[in-house]
Amino acid sequence: MVDNKLLNLHFTQLSSAWRYSKENIYSDAKKNEYHSNLKILHSKLSVEDFSLLDEPELLKRKVICDFFFKSLEFLNSSTLNHIPFEIVKCLELALCDWIDNEEDFLIVTSLVNDIHNFSFDPSLAFNEEIYNLINSVYGIEFKSRLIQINLPAHLDRDYLANVVLYHELGHFVDYKLNISKAIYEDLLSRLSLNQIPEANLNELVEYFPYIKDPLLLDYYRNGTTVHVLMSHLAEYFCDLFASQYIHSCSNHYLNYLTQSNTNYSQTHPSTTNRIRMVDTFLKKEKSFPLALFEHAVLKCTSDIKELKVRYETFDSDNFERLIPVDIENNDQLHYLFTYGWNIWLNSWVGFKDKNDMGFDLNRTQVYHLVNNLIEKSIGNHILVSNWEKFSE
Amino acid sequence: MFYSHTLESSKIGLFHLFLKSLIKGDDSYREDVNNVIKETSSLLNGDKDFYTIDRDRYPIIVYLKKSDPDYFKHIDINSLNNKDYQYIIEIFERQSNVNLI
Fold first, then answer.
1. Are A107 and A142 in contact (CB under 8 A)?
2. Which domain of life is it from (chain B) (predicted)?
3. C-beta atoms surrounding B56 within 10 Å
4. Interval A3-36: pLDDT, tens
């Protein structure tokens, strides 16, 4: 039941938020177009008298107000001055490997005041019903869908920590291609029919310790979603997805944050298992759980896409010589993060030796150097690529 | 993080709202609603599987399939009408675990 007075409150809150956002300036035409649609939407809502609407129509307005707020949450952090442009550019390139109509999607970021909050919010990328609703009620067509990624505001230019964003992009790809959900249904269906050989089942137990629990199949047969399994499949997929681009870099960070956690939670597998899954993939070893993901990626993309290493290594001492790396192609661009991590994790004596410094750099100096040089290397590559594209 | 549950609820809630609007005579949701019903029927009849059904409507399709498989297996997808839409609304309203927005 939607109360008319409460909806008026909701809309007034929205108008108040819009007052601060309506002059936003973005770096690209697609965000500007999205913003213009919000402006029209706001003007349409403004002239309506909610007291004249019946219950379903009130409910539609509530949903639209929620959509509007959610859009602002991300657009406000994606303006020309706020968006972490370089990392978003790298994610856009990875997106092109997986989505044919990538021009329909916009990667937007919300910079949140939570040091651990790296997450993907699917609410605006995969809710076609909302866009149909807005089009039906007001005749406004949103051409782009927002890929909403949350990242800690304090780390928006930390390119070591931001390797985690490849994992978050994996959630988008997972939703879009329906990979983990398809595995979930397939796996539980085969389990319920006793179609999985014992040896494979034993491998599964290592990654999904609850898989032999009779309750799991009871839930499945009763039509109840086994969220723990569905979540764990999604997380494993995203780890694999990210490792295609950043090797095992996110493992360093994950291992530290979770203190090598050996227990799983309702939403995430144990850290040890997550790392093991990625290592199995990167070492090109065989395992039944890994094969589930490889098979599903092929099936969900009609045999067009596969899980494979998508970065290209390069050898360089440029960072130690305090200059950016000349990136030759997009695959090398993704490797830049691994290159940065390798410098951070290894000895820093190269900085001193290669620049005839009479002193050692401290951790703060190395931190800023590595991050600035990664950012400059990405920026230079984008500039050169655009230059070549426009001069063709 | 995994937000699937929230998204599923939102999609199912909006689909329910579309059915209600359709019954009231708002035809703009007919195509969307019918496509979901057809996909559910295809999944149950083996014409499609979990890898090939409409991905954007996946949570709704799977929900309907599990809620009343017999009904969707035998539904005449070529002559969907208000009686069918009303029946599906009742499926949603019978389920206490569904948050209709």
1. no
2. Bacteria
3. 18
4. 889 999 999 999 999 999 999 998 889 999 999 9
If we measure between CA atoms, which residue out of A334, A326, A329 comes closest to residue A380? A326
A42 touches chain B (CB under 8 A): no
Q: Nearest-CA neighbor of B37 among B86, B93, B97, B99?
A: B86
- Residues A169 and A149: beta-carbon distance below 8 Å: yes
Cβ contacts (< 8 Å) between B10 and chain A: which residues?
A: 123, 127, 129-130
Question: Between A120, A129, A230, which is nearest B11 by CB?
Answer: A129
Q: Where are the domains of chain A?
A: 4-177, 179-300, 330-390
A365-382 tens-digit pLDDT:
999 999 999 999 999 999
Check CB contact of B55 with chain A, cutoff 8 Å: yes
Query: Which amino acid type is present at position A184?
Result: Y
Read off φ and ψ for residue A85, nearest 5 degrees.
-55, -45
Residues of A in Cβ contact (< 8 Å) with B58: 178, 181
CA distances from A12 to A8, A43, A65, A138, A358 (A): 6, 13, 10, 19, 62
Name the residue type at position A20: Y
Tokens encoding A197: 């050989």
Interface pTM (ipTM) of the complex? 0.79
- How far apart CA B6 and CA B15 sit, in angstroms, is 14
**Cβ–Cβ below 8 Å for B3 and A136:** no
Closest CA of chain B from A159, distance in Å: 20
Contact A127/B at CB under 8 A: yes
Which residue out of A61, A121, A129 would a mutagenesis test of the B interface target, given it has the greatest number of B Cβ atoms within 10 Å? A129
Closest CA to A239 of A203, A187, A290: A290
The residue whose two tokens read 């050692």 is A360
